[in-house]
Every structure is written in C-alpha cells, then in structure tokens.
Write a structure and sequence with these properties.
Layout: H1 10-15, E1 23-24, H2 26-41, H3 48-68, E2 74-75, H4 79-98, H5 110-125
Parallel strand pairs: 1-2
Helix pairs in contact: 2-3, 2-4, 3-4
Amino acid sequence: MATTPHDVGIDALMDTSPEPAVHTSIAAEAGFFLSVVALFAAPFSLTGGASLAAGLLALLVGGVGMVTTSRRYVAGKALVPLSMVLAFVAVVVVGLRYLGLDTAFGDAWVPTLTSWLESLNRMLIS
C-alpha cells in the first residue's frame, strides 16, 4: 500500500509545529521559594534576620520575575504576585518586631516542634 501526503499521522504534524516550548521563569520560582522561606521563618524570634533577608530578596527577585514573565512563552505569572504578597507579609511581621511589637508568636511552638522532631528522629534511628 502506497502512502500519500494525506496519510500523515498526528505525531508528524506535532513534530513540525512552529510553536516554541513554554518554560517557567527561574526568577518567579526563586522568588516564590524565598518568600515561603521568609514566611515560615517570620514567626520565630531567632530567625527574624533570616526572614527579613529572604523576604527582601524575594521582593527583589519578584520584580525581576515580573519582567521575565511578561515575555511570550514564559510561564509563572501567578507565582510572582503570590510570592510578592507572601514576602511582603513576612517583611511586615518582622518589621513590626523591630518597631517594638512582639510578633514572635512561633516561639511558643518551639518545644512542641522539638519534641516532634525528636520522636521522628527516634523512629528513623530504631
């Protein structure tokens, strides 16, 4: 049986598609990761400086992510505003602590978290 030009399968059609691949912006991903780190570190008094640094860096990288995701074929448009909001919340929580308000509400959880980690460690060792 001879093949005709009309016998071309869908795979051959997709292989020749002129559409370039879409990729996620590294700046959007990094900003989101930094903002989550900043938000989880904000409730503890010991990690206030690290939270502030991660939050400010997340805001800076979020600005870069906003520029890169405005390009065509670059994904991550939803990560950028989410990361900037989370980073802003973390910076405000730590900033209020520097202004004299006690926003270290996570310090009360430290004994509980320590006991959970110790029990998990015992389960892994035995």
